[in-house]
Target: Phosphoenolpyruvate carboxykinase [GTP]
Amino acid sequence: MTVTTLPPAVDRTPARTGAATVRRDLRAWVADVADLTEPDAVVWCDGSPAERQALLDGMVAAGTLIPLDPVLRPGSYLARSDPSDVARVESRTFICSRAQADAGPTNNWRDPDAMRAELAGVFEGSMRGRTMYVVPFSMGPLGGPISQLGVQLTDSPYVVVGMQTMTRVSRRVVAMIDAGASFVPAVHSVGAPLRTVSGTAVADVPWPCNDTKYIAHFPETREIWSFGSGYGGNALLGKKCFALRIASVMGRDEGWLAEHMLLVRLTSPQGRRYHVAAAFPSACGKTNLAMLTPSLPGWRVETLGDDIAWLRAGPDGTLRAINPEAGFFGVAPGTSVATNPAAIATLDHDTVFTNVALTPDGDVWWEGLTPEPPEGLVDWTGQPWEPGCGRPAAHPNSRFTVAAAQCPTIADSWEDPDGVPLDAIVFGGRRATNVPLVAQAHSWEHGVFLGATVSSEQTAAAEGTVGELRRDPFAMLPFCGYDMADHWAHWLRVGATLDPATRPLVFQVNWFRKDAAGRYLWPGFGENVRVLAWIVEQVDRARGERTDVGAVPSPVGLLPAPGALDTSGLDVTDEDLRALLDVDPRTWAVEADLTEDFFAGFGDRVPAALHHQLALLRERLSGT
Ligand code: PEP
Ligand code: NA
Ligand code: MN
Model:
């Protein structure tokens, strides 16, 4: 085995000792994994542009990437995955805590020792014939007080390039680890060795992967082992695996929060700045809200993050937030100049697209990019594509991977290591009925209740069929690394440590409410700034900086007072607005019963404060 550019060892502390030891010797661990997986070479990555270009060139030569037209889409590439490897595999995602109860009822639990034995079997020789890349990275600005270090080992150059975009890959991380910093070790193999045990060569393919997949997390030892997939959420281990599942456990133990939230700065016409974090389940428009182009004159929205936020109390008692990522791994279909012009501008150059369609002139296309598809498309599987053929040209989960710095609306402070002070936290879902356009929580505890009970409809459900809801508490259902009800208790604890004078206000939003005819009542997209404006004006009122009446009480929270939500120039009638803010006590009584059932699934781990919030909701409902 050849080992290239191994940095000189500074620290030679003993290799991993006990299961609970988080401090590890980096080189010993890398050597252990290489012994297990048997790569032909080990390459220590430095995150440099030259390294990236060499990897991209190599993938073009190997047929993994198709270079796009250098004039139409400079520095950009198309990857076509194996048709079976296109999304996160929640059924093969495991939380391997010592106690099953600590994983909670919403995660797949496996005993850590049993899983280690199973993983040793699948990883044995899994990198034969390939290069193992050592990718040292930081989630958040290097050395920042909220940031964390990780090292991913992977046999996929596509994953190395993705990690370079989505995280901060740097040799400085190795120096920090050598100087004593702890790191999260993350091992990834596509599970497609190029030699059998007996040494017979196996031909490579453009997108190697394995039908057997494991996305395994060891919360106590802060380890990640991922096998069989090259797809983003399964393979770019800094993202969902570290920044959400492992980080949520670190946050639980250390008093901070790792959340599935976008992060934006809003500037009012008066020049006042506010920071808002918002949690929505997948496919509810997080990236669109993060890059919103405001329709209201004078308001400005700047992007800080579109998927993950880490929240930690600052020394001054404010809740500070960073986006731990360095790029966007977004869904392409539906993204257009009309829905998200900032995203379209971001994707102008230096973007890796995965599973979108290819145009005859070497550019990309996906459903929704333009009203009409260009002629002569090649679909995401490489087949010629015609409109009306019954297949989508781009896979519905096709993605772009692009540096956040390329976004024209990126906030100048997006890399501030201390983060930004949060003024408001928003929870949202896709609900055709019942849930108002916007409501403000009565208190922090009520806000945690709103987050805990978030529900969403995958498709437009029939009117009033509240039973068809999918609960997605805190939009963290696939991403919480420990018991979800403990997560709610943790939110209550963190809130109690914050200065009540500056503690963020909590809101619930629903852009997706429909009338009886199935028509969306709210235009959404750039018009959502009107709701954000009301939210931050409520922040001003809570801080005594405005004295006008902004809200009226309702059983489910504070609603915009008449006239407080700016709908000027909108095609939203007074009747529409009433329907958008309507709270029907009868259907809400059903919601309350469903919430009781939902809580029952978490047994006695549900905090008493949330049972109390449910009782208060019912009290308010019966008072109407
Ligand atoms: C992912 O799958 O990597 C991902 C970002 O997931 P989602 O968009 O569903 O949050
Ligand atoms: Na299970
Ligand atoms: Mn996400």
Summary: The radius of gyration is 24 Å. Confidence is low (pLDDT under 50) at residues 4-21, 459-464. The CA atoms of residues 268 and 533 lie 8 Å apart. The chain has three domains: 24-65+91-253, 256-325+409-620, 327-404.
